[in-house]
């Protein structure tokens, strides 16, 4: 996070609180979010895109009621993609009209909950869903504002599992073959739905802005088809172009993502020019960053437990450093070959650096937090390691594998810390057990 520094004793401080203090007060593994950093990234996004439309924080990256309150007070909107995320947002008092609901298989109950809560819009992903929501809204005597999710056929250069806009995947209506235009027709024909926008999301952890630009052009290309079939007046109701999330962050110091301001202006320019060519008013642009806000604002603290040198073929050794968490709190290394920066945070060492592999405590050899990194040779049990940029998709994808209690999540700000989500306990596990006797 911005403002992280070492104090005079060489201990890393986050938001003015030393990692020693955090580990003593809350134990490890521990997620720490720097509130000021999180808020400043909200503000950066808002400053970049606010003039052209609005910013939705993608809550799948990380959500708690506290985070929803930060998002609310920074003036952003919120994306949810499940009934669970919606429930947390509403519990936090987040205004329903600033919430959008996503998902490729929303249940009847999730759609009904969204309509009943009065969410701002619902992003539709299949023909079945168009019929389903039309019926649910009709039963309640309301007209639901909806977006149609388009698959613009853009190959985002990122990991296959998090790339979403090529044709052969589950999300959205393809532009090719007129599938997306069919969806627009179906929504126009549905009495209880109002088509207010088009949506596209090309993937995640993307560094090149040309993919976003191409997607924007293609989504507007669909607007051209809509104008041709339904005329300018009818098309004007589609006043929102939601271009999704996906802006990359730097996990390693060597990576430099494009500045959000540059992306915002590039997209606005395309949208302005191409909508004018269709005689349409400039649509509102929405974006949905998750990682770009939460990712760099959070870190994970682990304690080193054991250290082992394993002989490799050819006479070299690999140093395995085991920490007290692992794939249950960060599955991204195993799942996406993700890379992270790690450092010894509880002291300064002048020992020479050696190549290490940081592994977790779970019962499988794939349980790797960091495949290769440099750590001081005198690293010892009890030292605290800090893994950076774990604020997105780590806690939210955490598991209880091996009955590991989920880590606590704390926030730091101006020298103070407080618990956002407490650590799970064995009692939490037991509370789910239904004793059949
Ligand atoms: N909007 C939609 C419709 C999405 O599907 C996503 C992410 C976002 C916005 C936010 O994208 P972001 O700005 O955070 O890149 N678990 C993976 C990431 C999966 C992203 C899924 N959708 C990871 O850990 O990298």
Percent in strands: 15-25%
Each distinct ligand: ligand LLP
Radius of gyration: 23 Å
End-to-end span in angstroms?
Answer: 51 Å
What is the CATH architecture descriptor of the largest domain? Alpha-Beta Barrel
- The CATH class of the largest domain is Alpha Beta
Helix percent band: 25-40%
Give the helix tally.
12
* Strands, count: 21
Name given to the CATH homologous superfamily of the largest domain:
Alanine racemase
Assign the structural class, choosing from mainly alpha, mainly beta, alpha/beta, alpha+beta, or little secondary structure. alpha/beta
Give the integer mean of the pLDDT values.
Answer: 96
Poorly predicted regions are none
- Can you tell me the overall shape? globular
Question: How many structural domains in the coordinates?
Answer: 2
The fold-level CATH name of the largest domain is TIM Barrel
Q: Main β-sheet, in a few words? A: 9 strands, mixed
């Amino acid at each position: 996070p911005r403002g992280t520094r070492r104090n005079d004793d060489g201990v890393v401080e986050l938001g003015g609180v030393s990692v020693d203090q955090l580990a003593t007060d809350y134990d490890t593994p521990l997620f720490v979010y720097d509130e000021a950093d999180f808020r400043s990234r909200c503000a950066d996004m808002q400053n970049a895109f606010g003039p052209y439309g609005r910013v939705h924080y993608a809550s799948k990256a990380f959500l708690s009621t506290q985070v929803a309150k930060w998002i609310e007070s920074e003036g952003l909107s919120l994306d949810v993609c499940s009934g669970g995320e919606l429930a947390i947002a509403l519990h936090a008092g987040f205004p329903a009209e600033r919430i959008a609901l996503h998902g490729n298989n929303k249940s009847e109950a999730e759609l009904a909950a969204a309509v009943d809560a009065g969410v701002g819009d619902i992003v539709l992903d299949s023909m079945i869903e168009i019929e389903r929501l039309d019926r649910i809204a009709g039963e309640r005597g309301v007209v639901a504002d909806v977006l149609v999710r388009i698959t613009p056929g853009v190959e985002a250069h990122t990991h296959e599992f998090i790339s979403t806009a090529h044709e052969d995947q589950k999300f959205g209506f393809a532009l090719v073959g007129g599938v997306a235009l069919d969806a627009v027709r179906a929504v126009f024909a549905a009495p209880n739905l109002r088509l207010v926008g088009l949506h596209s999301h090309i993937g995640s952890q993307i560094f090149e802005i040309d993919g976003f630009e191409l997607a924007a052009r293609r989504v507007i290309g669909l607007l051209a088809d809509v104008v041709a079939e339904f005329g300018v007046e009818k098309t004007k109701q589609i006043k929102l172009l939601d271009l999704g999330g996906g802006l990359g962050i730097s996990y390693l110091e060597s990576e430099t993502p494009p500045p959000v301001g540059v992306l915002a202006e590039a997209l606005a320019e395309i949208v302005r020019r191409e909508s004018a060519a269709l005689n349409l008013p400039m649509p509102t642009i929405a974006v949905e960053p998750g990682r770009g806000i939460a990712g760099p604002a959070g870190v994970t603290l682990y304690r080193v437990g054991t250290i082992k040198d394993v002989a490799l073929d050819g006479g070299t050794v690999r140093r395995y450093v085991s920490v007290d968490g692992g794939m249950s709190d960060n599955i991204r290394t195993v799942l996406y070959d993700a890379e992270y920066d790690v450092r010894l945070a509880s002291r300064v060492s002048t020992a020479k650096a050696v190549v290490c592999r940081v592994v977790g405590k779970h019962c499988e050899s794939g349980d790797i937090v960091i495949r290769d990194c440099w750590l001081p040779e005198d690293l010892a049990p009890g030292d605290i390691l800090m893994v950076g940029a774990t604020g997105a998709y780590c806690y939210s994808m955490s598991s209880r594998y091996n009955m590991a209690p989920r880590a606590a999540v704390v926030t730091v700000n101006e020298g103070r810390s407080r618990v956002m989500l407490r650590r799970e306990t064995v009692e939490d596990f037991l509370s789910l057990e239904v004793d059949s006797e």
